Amino acid sequence: MSLKILTVVGARPQFIKAAPVSRALRREHNEFLLHTGQHYDRNMSQLFFEELEIPAPDLNLEIGSGPHGEQTAQMLVGIERVLQEQKPDRVLVYGDTNSTLAGALAAAKLNIPVDHIEAGLRSFNMTMPEEVNRILTDRISDQLFCPTAAAVAHLRREGITQGVHNTGDVMYDAALHFARLAGERSGILERLDVAPGGYLLATCHRPQNTDDPAALAAIVRALADSGERVIFPVHPRTTGFLRRDGLLEGLEGAGRISVIEPVGYLEMIQLERHARMIVTDSGGVQKEAYFYRVPCITLREETEWVETVEDGWNLLAGSDYDRILGAIRTFSPPAQQTAHYGDGHASEAIVHLLDGTV
Ligand code: UD1
Ligand code: UDP
Predict the structure, then answer these.
(1) Catalytic residue among 29, 205, 235, 274
(2) H or E stretch including 130?
(3) Quick one: which atom of ligand 1 is closest to the CA of 99?
(4) Which pLDDT score, from 0 to 100, does residue 329 have?
(5) 41 lines ligand 1 (CB under 6 A)
(6) Ligand nearest to the CA of 204
(7) Which of 13, 34, 123, 346 has the fewest CB atoms nearer than 10 Å to its CB?
(8) Where exactly does CATH 3.40.50.2000 map onto the chain?
(9) Catalytic-residue membership of 39
C-alpha cells in the first residue's frame, strides 16, 4: 500500500538531503513537499531544486528570516494548517533546523507519526540552536533514521530504542550520486582560475563564529595570513556580519582570497573535491571533505561527526587564530578511512523501512 508522506524542508542542507530521498520515496509513495521558506534567496533554495531535480515544492509557506521564537512559531502555525488540510499518513523531517522542529512538533500534536532523517546526532553543546532542535525532534519521532553507529548509541543512552535504525547517511548518497555530474557540468575551477590542489575552500555560518566579532575576525585573519589562495563562498548570514565588522573590504583586498556568493551544490562539490584543504564550521561540508578524502579543519570545539576526527581526517581548531593557522600549515591526515556513513543507499534503506510501517 502506498503512503501519503508530507515532507518538511526549509534550509539549504535539507534540499540536498531531500534529493536522493524524494527520488526513492516517489517510486512507491505519494509525497507532498512543504517548503517553510526559511531559506529563500535563489542561490540558497531554488537553485538546488533545479540542479538536483528535486520536485518543486507543493507549497512554500514563505516564512523567511526572523528571531528563533518568531520564525519557529510562524512555521508551526503554517505547517499545522497544511497538515489538517492534507491529512498525511506520516511527516518526514531532516536534520536539526527550526524547520525540522516546527514540522515534528506540528505533526506530533496532531498524532501524525514523525520520521526523522539524521536522527541521534549530538554535539553536547546546548548553546547551539541545532542541539535543542534535534533533541526535541528525536524525542517525539516515531522512526529515527540514524546516519552513524554513534548516533544510535546517543539515542540508546537517552533511552530511545524503539524505531531506531542505522541506515547510513543520505548526504553520502547525494555526494556519490552527484559527483560525476559535478565533474561534467561545473566549470567553476576554470572560472575562479584555480588549479586542483592549489587552494583552500572555506565556509563559515555558525552563530558562535559569525555573531562574535572576535571569533569572526580571528577566522578571517587566519585565512588571510595563511598566504594561500582561498575560495570563500559566503553564507548570507555571514555577509551581514563581515560588513558589520568592516572585514569584507580587507578580505577582498587581500588578493589571494575570492569572496564569492554561495554556490550551487554541483559547483560546491567540485570545489570540495579539488581543494587542498577545507576550513569550515558546516556539518555537511565536514562530511563531504571526508567523503572526498580532503583534509578538513573545523572551526568549532566539538563536532557531531566524531568519526571524521577519530579517523584523523578532521581537526578541531575552534575560532582560535593560532590553531587555525597552525593547522592550515601542518595538518596532514593518514591515508586510512573507515566506512562510517553507509554504502550510498541510505535513501533506499529508509524507504524500505517506511514500507514496513504500512
Ligand atoms: C540555518 C540553520 C542551521 C543550518 C543552516 C544551513 C536554524 C536554527 N539554523 O542557519 O542549522 O546549518 O541554516 O545553511 O535553523 N538569509 C538570507 N537569505 C536566505 C536565508 C538566510 O539573507 O535565503 C540570512 C538572513 O539574514 C537570516 C540569516 O541569513 O537572518 C540566518 O538565516 P536562518 O535561516 O535563520 O539561519 P542560518 O544561519 O541560515
Ligand atoms: N553548500 C553549497 N553551496 C555553498 C555552501 C554549501 O551547495 O555555497 C552545500 C554543501 O556542499 C553541503 C551543504 O550545502 O552539502 C551544507 O549546508 P550548510 O553548510 O549551509 O549547513 P550545515 O550542513 O552546516 O547544516
Answers:
(1) 205
(2) helix 129-139
(3) 15
(4) 97
(5) yes
(6) 2
(7) 123
(8) 4-169+342-355, 178-330
(9) no
CATH T-level assignment (fold) for domain 4-169+342-355? Rossmann fold (3.40.50)
Distance from Cα 334 to the centre of ligand 2, integer Å:
25
Atom of ligand 1 nearest to the CA of 205: 38
> What count of other Cβ atoms lies within 10 Å of the Cβ of residue 46?
17
Protein residue whose Cα sits closest to atom 2 of ligand 2: 265
Model pLDDT for residues 240-276, shown as the tens digit of each residue: 999 888 888 877 766 799 999 999 999 999 999 999 9
DSSP one-letter string for 53-88: TPPPPSEE----S--HHHHHHHHHHHHHHHHHHH--
Indicate whether residue 215 lines ligand 2 (CB < 6 A): no
- CA 262 to ligand 2 centroid distance, Å: 9
* DSSP strands (E only) in the chain: 4-9, 30-35, 59-60, 90-94, 114-117, 143-146, 164-166, 200-203, 230-233, 257-260, 277-280, 296-298, 314-316
Q: What is the pLDDT of residues 35-66, one digit of tens each?
A: 999 999 999 999 999 999 999 999 999 999 99
**Cα 13 from Cα 10, distance rounded (Å):** 9
Architecture of domain 178-330: 3-Layer(aba) Sandwich (3.40)
